[in-house]
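Propose amino acids for all 931 sites.
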């Protein structure tokens, strides 16, 4: 096809590639109708980059009306493996091991065991991104996924993961093409495209038809000369500017033209030998690409006869030879030919393909014989027993490849066929149970609930009913549907004491109770879970139960006695290799340490959780949870710049909606304290929207309320602030840890019932005592403000300490005690200056003017002086890693910040030290004892 009329689009792709070379990732969503030239545009763009950049491409093939799981990415991996070999490929992977990618490339070696489906798929996605990052660090990387309108759900989820995490990764360009005319109203790609298009680094490029002048240029190239005016008029009118149709019409100049423009694409077939037509139609039923050996088996021809039959089709430009397969020149040609086959013959050919793939799995070009065979049997129709058996085998293959959505889809097909042809090797109940697990792994929670209901209605013994109802309880919670706790309680009642599943069911119940929170009932459930786990010898359940029980007891004020149990649980999780349990233990440790005001220790536990997530290959999926814990601890400690960097990076990897809302609350907290009311408003609106649309925990909601109350007060909207506090008090939230900050924020407001709630609310630990003391000082005992400041000082929380010092200074000034007022105000100014808390600084300076108290020049942001070269604490962290020989990316991974942020820190360090290289910086760091 002659290439014309795409100069602007080609330039735009080149611009995005230049951005990737300069370190900025981007995605291009390339849409257009069939035949408009999407693939040709990509080919023209990529051609000059050969040898300069990594070019990884794969398409989403359609087989039997369905897409193949991970097909475009499997194709990319196979081509890369051929190019660089096994050793070169392993060099690009974490620890030089195949990991979960071995499931898609068996040549590398499959990983041992299956593990938690959610974690293994998350690890697979992270390994893909790590592979792409490592390639991008060697030379520019361009990834192309074509025909996304045929993509399977697993491929769409992987694309979504890559796009969401692009800004936090090494720079690369991702191009995703799709047929815009294929996207009907309910097409699964439509909402995904809309979500991708909202990303600032994503560009949507709609490839339109050619104009008249461009059609003339294309005709000149095709015909080798100036076309006659009548030809121009006829071709432009009939093609409507579609380049593929222009090409087809140009070949028929002066000859009769079929009534249908689609039929025009296959008119060259009419003049070919009968055997060629038969073979080409058989190939079209197989898909857009088909291997020689597979086509030979299906047609029954030997090699020589098949080659003779195909040669005219290749000469007529209907088929192309790509590596070891035959490919239709355009997928639209394959579709028209497929539809041209009579239904009976089409079904017969699909059955032939299925039988061939079952007999010799090596005939499947992507190594997915079971899956392709199942698709062909389904398309063949009228073979229920063989279709069911093939779907069962393909479901196992999909599960092994971590294609959870396809696993579920195939099991649902098995269930649909069950009454026609039951599988004697298993029971329908077993298939239902497997389908429930697959639906949960795929995130199809509503489908999972429906399957649970089906299984329960069919009848189940108490143990199985308990298992099913426990799943329904978890699913109802995720869906925000009432009845989740009732289900979990009923599941615990039904599951017999001797059943190995009892510990798991009780752990689910304890987890849910402790997050409501219903502390006492949660402790009882956790204790019973621990007993059941020990009785069953279930090490994993014992770790989870131990963590839950120690977590519950620590929250009740017994922290020191419980920490050793948490440490032991972490050691056990490490020993048995259970990464999910280990991450749960670190998360709970950081949380309880924060709740008792031990923020430095909480930060260290969160860092250990981040390190464990990174070692497990889950830095981007499990990491943001621990990053949130770390950021919250750092905010309390007054290390706001570090916290802001961590939150920014965690949001770049786009965690779950509820977690992103929590992170936005943390970002809004810093923004408000520094006077950026617009950013704080944006953060609260985002979090409120998430919590309104989905399920949220009480503590997350109360964290948001505290921020909203402070924001409304800063905006002078005290009535709105009071209403928010009143709503929180009436919402049934009873967690003292999260309710005390809201009560303190509302103490200066006219909130009905607040004094009574405060009087009745328990006080557990020094943090809650500090809040209670501040509330008392605010509501009538201002002489307590120095004590409040001392309480926050002892907890190493500089911001509330500075606020309390300001209030103490106000009270002292009103009482005429200038010395005390000056002392409190000076101390408050020192802390506020270090934090760059501008609204607080403004209030301090206003009081100083009114009370005529001189203030020394405020301290800046905590910069080290003298021999410290003005390095911030964060820059010292970076310098320590730099001196250890770490790259910017390794520094970013260690500190959970973006690579760009790490690079900015390194540049600042070099400038402050007055050196030009990393080696010189490391030398200076040791010489001046900066690390």
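Proposal:
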């Amino acid at each position: 096809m002659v290439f014309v009329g795409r100069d602007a689009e080609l330039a735009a792709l080149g611009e995005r590639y230049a951005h990737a070379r300069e370190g900025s990732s981007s995605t291009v969503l390339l849409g257009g109708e069939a035949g408009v030239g999407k693939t040709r545009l990509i080919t023209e763009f990529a051609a000059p980059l050969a040898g300069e950049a990594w070019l990884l491409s794969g398409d989403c093939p359609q087989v039997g009306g369905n897409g193949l799981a991970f097909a475009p990415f499997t194709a990319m991996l196979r081509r890369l493996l051929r190019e660089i070999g096994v050793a070169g490929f392993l060099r690009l992977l974490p620890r030089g091991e195949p990991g979960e990618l071995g499931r898609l490339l068996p040549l590398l070696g499959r990983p041992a065991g299956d593990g938690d489906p959610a974690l293994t798929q998350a690890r697979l996605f992270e390994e893909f991104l790590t592979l792409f990052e490592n390639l991008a660090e060697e030379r520019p990387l361009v990834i192309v996924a074509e025909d996304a309108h045929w993509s399977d759900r697993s491929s769409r989820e992987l694309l979504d993961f890559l796009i969401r995490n692009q800004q936090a990764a090494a720079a690369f360009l991702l191009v995703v093409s799709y047929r815009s005319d294929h996207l009907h109203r309910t097409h699964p790609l439509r909402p995904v495209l809309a979500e991708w298009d909202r990303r600032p680094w994503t560009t949507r490029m709609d490839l339109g038809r050619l104009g008249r002048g461009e059609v003339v240029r294309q005709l000149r190239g095709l015909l080798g000369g100036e076309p006659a005016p009548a030809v121009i008029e006829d071709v432009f009118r009939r093609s409507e500017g579609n380049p593929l149709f222009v090409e087809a019409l140009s070949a028929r100049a002066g000859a009769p033209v079929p009534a249908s423009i689609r039929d025009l694409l296959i008119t060259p077939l009419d003049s070919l030998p009968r055997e060629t037509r038969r073979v080409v139609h058989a190939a079209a039923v197989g898909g857009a690409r088909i291997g020689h050996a597979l086509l030979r088996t299906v047609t029954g021809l030997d090699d020589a006869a098949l080659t003779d039959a195909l040669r005219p089709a290749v000469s007529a430009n209907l088929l192309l030879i790509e590596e070891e397969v035959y490919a239709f020149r355009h997928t639209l040609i394959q579709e028209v030919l497929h539809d041209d086959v009579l239904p009976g013959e089409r079904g017969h050919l699909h059955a032939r393909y299925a039988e061939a793939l079952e007999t010799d799995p090596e005939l499947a070009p992507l190594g997915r014989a079971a899956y392709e065979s199942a698709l062909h049997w389904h398309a063949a129709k009228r073979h229920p027993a063989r279709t069911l058996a093939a779907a069962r085998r393909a479901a196992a293959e999909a599960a092994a490849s971590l294609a959870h959505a396809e696993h579920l889809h195939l099991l649902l097909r098995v269930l649909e066929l069950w009454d026609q042809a039951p599988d004697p090797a298993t029971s329908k109940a077993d298939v239902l149970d497997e389908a429930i697990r697959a639906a949960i792994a795929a995130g199809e929670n509503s489908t999972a609930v429906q399957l649970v209901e089906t299984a329960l209605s069919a009848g189940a013994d108490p143990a199985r009913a308990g298992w099913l109802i426990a799943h329904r309880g978890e699913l109802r919670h995720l869906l925000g549907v009432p009845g989740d706790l009732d289900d979990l309680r009923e599941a615990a009642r039904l599951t017999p004491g001797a059943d190995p599943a009892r510990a798991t069911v009780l752990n689910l119940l304890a987890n849910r109770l402790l997050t409501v929170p219903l502390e006492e009932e949660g402790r009882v459930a956790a204790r019973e879970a621990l007993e059941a786990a020990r009785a069953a010898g279930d090490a994993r359940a014992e770790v989870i139960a131990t963590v839950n029980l120690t977590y519950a007891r620590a929250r009740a004020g017994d922290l020191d006695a419980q920490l050793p149990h948490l440490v032991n649980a972490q050691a056990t999780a490490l020993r048995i290799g259970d990464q999910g349990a280990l991450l749960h233990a670190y998360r709970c440790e950081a949380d309880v340490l924060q709740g008792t005001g031990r923020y430095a220790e909480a930060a260290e536990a969160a860092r250990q959780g981040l390190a464990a997530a990174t070692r497990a290959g889950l830095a981007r999926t499990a990491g943001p949870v621990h990053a949130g814990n770390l950021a919250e601890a750092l905010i309390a400690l007054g290390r706001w710049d570090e916290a802001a960097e961590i939150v920014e990076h965690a949001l770049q990897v786009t965690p779950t909606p509820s977690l992103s809302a929590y992170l936005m609350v943390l970002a809004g907290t810093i923004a408000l304290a520094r006077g950026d009311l617009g950013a704080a408003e944006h953060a609260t609106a985002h979090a409120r929207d998430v919590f309104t649309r989905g399920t949220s925990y009480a503590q997350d909601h109360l964290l948001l309320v505290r921020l909203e109350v402070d924001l409304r007060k800063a905006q002078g909207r005290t009535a709105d602030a009071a209403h928010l506090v009143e709503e929180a008090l009436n919402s049934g939230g009873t967690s003292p840890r999260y309710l005390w900050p809201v009560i303190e924020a509302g103490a200066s407001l006219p909130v009905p019932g607040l004094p009574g709630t405060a009087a009745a609310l328990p006080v557990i630990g020094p943090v809650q005592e500090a809040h209670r003391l501040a509330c008392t000082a605010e509501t009538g005992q201002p002489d307590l403000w120095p004590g409040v400041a001392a309480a926050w000082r002892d907890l190493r929380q500089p911001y509330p300490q500075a606020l309390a010092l300001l209030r103490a200074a106000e009270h002292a000034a009103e009482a005429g005690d200038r010395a005390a007022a000056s002392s409190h105000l000076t101390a408050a100014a020192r802390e506020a200056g270090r934090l760059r808390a501008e609204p607080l600084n403004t209030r301090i300076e206003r009081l100083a003017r009114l009370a005529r108290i001189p203030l020394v020049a405020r301290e800046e942001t905590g910069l080290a002086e003298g021999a410290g070269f003005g390095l911030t604490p964060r820059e010292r962290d970076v310098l320590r890693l730099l001196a250890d020989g770490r790259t910017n990316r390794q520094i970013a991974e260690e500190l959970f910040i973006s690579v760009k942020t790490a690079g900015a820190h390194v540049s600042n360090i070099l400038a402050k030290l007055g050196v030009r290289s990393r080696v010189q910086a490391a030398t200076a760091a040791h010489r001046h004892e900066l690390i």
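The domain at 866-927 is CATH 1.10.10.10 (Arc Repressor Mutant, subunit A). Confidence is low (pLDDT under 50) at residues 859-867.
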